[in-house]
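FW: tagging you since you asked about this chain on Friday. Here's the raw sequence from the shared folder, copied in full. Didn't touch anything.
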Amino acid sequence: MRFIKPGLRNSISALLGTEVRRASPEALEPVRQAMLDVLGEEGARLHPQLSYKLRYLHDAHALWYARADVVAALSSIHGEVKAVSMVQSLTPVFRGLVPRSLMDASSRQRH
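HL: got it, structure written out here
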């Protein structure tokens, strides 16, 4: 049994300004492609499970949280500093797809 009904939860999110529109599959493709581009051919070859995961994740939040896996994969190729920088460059493609609070937290971690 759910204690908070989905409609109420969505209403509270809208009231607090944390609601983000549900992205269509077409809206996710630029994000997905940007992540695959950052992973690159070598990263996809060395980490085929991650490449597969990026191709088939179903929403923007799942792709957002997969950035940590991309950093881990790229760290083995380029080193951690460059890997973090490469993944940080993806942040703008998520604008409007994930809550601003996630994006702000990501930018604060850089400093």
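FW: Residues 25-46 form the longest helix (22 residues).
HL: agreed, and The CA atoms of residues 55 and 103 lie 22 Å apart.
FW: great, closing this out.
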